[in-house]
Amino acid sequence: MSKRAVDMTFQAIYTLTDLRVLLRETAPGHEFDEGQKVQVERLLGNLERQVASLKQEMLK
Amino acid sequence: MRCGNGIEARQVDELFINIDPIQAGGRLTADAMKAVIAYGDGYSVCDNCRKPNRLDYISKPPIADFHTDVARWLNMDAVRTVPGARRGFQAVAQTYVKKGDPVLLTTLSHYTEFLAVEEAGGIAREIPASEQKLVTPDAAAAKIEEVRKEFGRAPVLAFIDHVDYQYGNMHDIAAIAKVMRQYDVPIVYNGAYTVGILPVDGKALGVDFVIGSGHKSMAAPAPSGILAATAERGAEVFRTTSIVGDVTNRKFGIKEPEMMGCTLMGATLVGMMASFPHVKERVKHFDRELANHKLVTDALLSVAGTKILSEYPRKHTMTRADTTASFDTIAATHKKRGYYFSSALEEKGITGVIPGATKVWKFNTYGMTGKQAAHLAGAFVDIARENGIGVN
């Protein structure tokens, strides 16, 4: 297993952590303003890339 | 969802606005959460521990720098991390208090300060708070004189809370410290509700020790905290070991007996360190927190019969409310009795009020967004209206 897989695992967890904090900041309704929607899109995009990299690394 | 055998994943702060009075300042930052994930293993910060083998000398992760930075930030000379403010009280009491020594506390002091005095064999003497629930320098001077008459000597130590846990009132600790200095009484500044919440300058306050709580006010995991001292007092409370084993002739280097060697050795310390840059920044914006808090107290006070028992206008975001003549009037006839109030709050996405409490209760708005504060303020008013309580 590569160092890259380990790095990607941490990065994905950290991206999810940023999403978690956003859920905290918008509790209880979780209604995002425009800036937060942009942030969520960016974070989810990052997460998809990180998961794709993980698949590549861990399933090869 | 579970995160272990029988352990529910805690989602309180993701699902609700949490107004628990002791939890607000300890909520982790994103960086602290990430650090905790990376450093959750037991002795995780010890990977690069080198001689002289003491926690506050480790440079990777930058624990040594953290100690220096915290001391500078508080304008004190020496800092150690401790497993909670209470362990800081304990270290100081063990250093200065001997059996039968009088120690000053106040009628609003936290119980752990009493326990620290008790464990050291001291005798507690409380400075009475005024009718407004404030500890004044005059009352402190009067109590010292009283102690001198009773014991034939001044107290050996004083523990004073800058903001007390009962009312969240702010006491004039600089003026109280001035009185203590006149009598040569070392003073411990209990900053459990201030260090990490608002700016604290130990030297300007004229105190010997500053104690803070990581898990209460520095966005850190429990148990964590800091004990800061002036150079003079640091040499006393952070003295190094001198014990020698009679068979092995072993000595223990620069370990400090009051710290029991190393203190926070993993997620607690790294969590506190990761939050520290954010904490340093947030204390500069306490005015925003007070503005959010005012929005909520104004709403509460608009509910007929509600009183704020804490000093007013508020100087802190933790407040004691009396709703005996408002929300409690519904409890006697409501099918949920006193539980209706916390239940109604929960339905509106708010938690942290003790279930069943409708008379006197505390809350804290620290760390809320403006939108969340508005939601909370609106919820109190709505619950009043829904239950036929007048709103002004």
Walk me through the structure.
The complex is a heterodimer of chains A (60) and B (392). With 60 residues, chain A is an all-alpha fold. Chain A has one domain. The mean pLDDT of chain A is 96. Chain A is built from two helices and no strands. Chain B has two domains: 125 residues, Aspartate Aminotransferase, domain 1; 255 residues, Aspartate Aminotransferase, domain 2. Chain B is globular, with a radius of gyration of 23 Å. The mean pLDDT of chain B is 98. Chains A and B meet through helix 1 of A and helix 1, helix 2 and helix 15 of B.
Quickly list its features.
heterodimer; A: 60 residues; mainly alpha; 2 helices; 80% helix; elongated; B: 392 residues; alpha/beta; Aspartate Aminotransferase, domain 1; Aspartate Aminotransferase, domain 2; 7-stranded mixed beta sheet; 3-stranded antiparallel beta sheet; 38% helix
In short:
The complex is a heterodimer of chains A (60) and B (392). Chain A is mainly alpha-helical.
Can you tell me the overall shape of chain A?
elongated
How many beta-strand elements of chain B?
A: 14
Query: Spatial order of the strands in the main sheet of chain B?
Result: 4-10-9-8-7-5-6
Which pair of chains forms the biggest interface, and how many residues does each contribute? A-B, 14 and 19 residues
Label the structural class of chain A. mainly alpha
Q: Determine Rg of chain A (CA atoms, Å).
A: 14 Å
Order of secondary-structure elements of chain A: HH
Secondary-structure topology with pairs:
The complex is a heterodimer of chains A (60) and B (392).
Chain A: H1 3-25, H2 34-58
Helix pairs in contact in A: 1-2
Chain B: E1 2-4, E2 7-8, H1 12-15, E3 17-18, H2 30-38, H3 63-74, E4 78-82, H4 85-96, E5 102-106, H5 111-119, E6 123-127, H6 137-151, E7 157-161, H7 173-182, E8 187-191, H8 202-205, E9 209-213, H9 214-217, E10 225-229, H10 231-237, H11 267-282, H12 286-302, E11 307-308, E12 318-322, H13 328-331, H14 339-347, E13 350-351, E14 360-364, H15 370-386
Parallel strand pairs in B: 3-13, 5-6, 5-7, 7-8, 8-9
Antiparallel strand pairs in B: 1-2, 4-10, 9-10, 11-12, 12-14
Helix pairs in contact in B: 2-11, 4-5, 6-7, 12-15
